[in-house]
């Protein structure tokens, strides 16, 4: 006979919350355990792209570590807001964020969803790569120092690479 989920979880990892009570059966006292079940109702979709169904039509969803990303993707959380543009110092910046898995909440993934910040992140990654290439490479280090010290050469290189003043 198949065991219930509660029994299977008890074998795999004991529950953190255990509620028990004593029951007298004849002259003996037995300890009975009540299952701890929590139902949470929350609007975690942010600003949904499509209207949510009425509360009466929604179903409870069991969430665990194995299906979290799947449930998160199904709820399709979306945020849309405006923030001060501190990068350029003028105006506002429109921010649109979508989350499909837990990793999307990491700073790197959030930054990659904002184009202006994604450019800065890409520049930072390139600079880190350059620093790692410079480590122990005296020829490249000397060449870069020469380019940085010679403004004409620097401008020519910038034009050749199609760079801007950003």
UniProtKB/TrEMBL annotation:
It holds the Pfam family T6SS_VipA. PANTHER family: CYTOPLASMIC PROTEIN-RELATED (PTHR35850), TYPE VI SECRETION SYSTEM SHEATH PROTEIN TSSB1 (PTHR35850:SF1). This is Type VI secretion system contractile sheath small subunit. It comes from Sulfidibacter corallicola.
